[in-house]
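2024-03-11 09:14:02 DEBUG pipeline.ingest accepted 1 chain
2024-03-11 09:14:02 DEBUG pipeline.ingest length=551
2024-03-11 09:14:03 DEBUG pipeline.predict start
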Amino acid sequence: MSKKSLKDILFLLELSYFFFMLGNGIVSLTNPDEVFYAQTAKEMAKHNSWMTPYLFDAPQFEKPVLLYWLLRIGLIIFPNPNFAARFFPALFAALGLVAVYFLSLIGFKNEKKAFISALILMSSGLYIGLARTVFTDMIFSVLILFSLLSFYWGYTRQPKKGLGILFFFIFSGLAVLTKGPLGFLIPFLIISVFLLIKRKFKFLFCRYSLWGIFIFIAVSFPWYIFMLKKYGSSFIREFFYNDHIRRFISAEHPGNDKWYFYPFSMIGCIFPWSIYTLISLIYLLRYLNRDINPIYIFLISWIGVVFLTFQPAHSKLVSYIFPLFPALALVTGDFIYNTALSEKKNRIFFTVSLATALILLLMATGLFVGMPRYSIYLSSKIPVYLLLFILLFLSISFCFFLFRYKFSKIIFILVILIPAISFVLLFILKELEPYVSSKNACDYLLKNYAINSPIICSKPFVRGVRYYTDREIVAIDLPGRNFFSPHPIPFLGNDEEVKAYLRRQPVAYCVLKKANVEDIERIAQDGFKFTILKIIGNEYLLKIETIKKNS
């Protein structure tokens, strides 16, 4: 490694603290997913379990165990639970930058190109978002990235072939412990397609692959064997069928089940590099008919496999295709370097940048127009004005440097754009915390009322109320549509079930969304009295009492 590469990597790691970690303790853990993972880790500690994930004091099988191990470690190390829970996704995001840098350096043999590719990934919207939230997707995708880096390192460096293959299997095994069998299937399909295109599939037929399979089994199988042995058909039904097969054939989020969801998400979520990425993908396709640098074939295989793996599935979320974002960053970095930072200035880069400038100006205009409508939820409009100033300033600066052909300057502006916006958004989000987290509602209930019965919650608040109160929970949804992965708690799915439950409770406290409050108002006419104690954000705190009939 050259001194320049070492300096680049150290600089990326320093920047990653500001991009991914700074301010992560400000906003409380949000509904419904962050609290889900944090509560599982907390209950594992409560039950003194390192193998079985728990939720609502019962084993839960939605995800494998690696993230929960990391969360438990984070909660031990850091006093702030919000920062602790978000630490490891941020750390893996930083490691992902290093992996992209090295993969670009190996593939393109150009330090500037490697640095640009890492900057693009670091400053893209979805990458920053997942680095700052508690999900499996960042850790899962970075482990896949490391497995692919290991393979390509071994493929291009014959003396390192053995180590490359072994590390490919190690990181794939860890990915399987993070999110399931796709942790191996995705990288294996990518390298298989690549080797088939290159007509070098025999590369894998060696003793290193055999040892790699043994290591993979040793890393990933013990936890699955333990769970199968202890929980049998319950684990198989929930983990393998419900969370994998059923998600493929049934839509958990029907609104996302559109053919264009992933193409639009892929381009939109790498903003502000969206148009550069779109054009770079068009350029990439031109390499299919050329005998060129194998890194292009590798990237085409990578993007194609991930996209085609998830496109047919009916359950669609943006985070599912996140493993292809490092490849998008590499393709985009290559395009930007070739068209802007080489000696010849390119008209295509200017045109793409001009379109990006127009988008930035439209965003600033939209914020200015929409500010009076949405700033009513804030006690102070200063953060919104600051956000507007940042957008305007960066948009105008972008245009200024663009027309002066200072392309390195406009790349710098795009790199800092999302981090600058996201840091201001942290303070806006802190004020909007009651709309994204149940912490304030739970604090109010626990401080002001003696709650001796389970808390009735609308589905979006179930996990958050459990996390912030540690009380028993009853879920309500009228008409009754249970969770995609049912929780081991009572579920009230129609009026009669609600009435029967309330008659068994002299007093019940609720954290409900507005639609469920209207349901309770209707049900209360049949012998119940309800009082709205407080409205905090989008959460209505209710007290329901059974009216005793005179004998």
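2024-03-11 09:14:41 DEBUG pipeline.report The two ends are 88 Å apart (CA to CA).
2024-03-11 09:14:41 DEBUG pipeline.predict end
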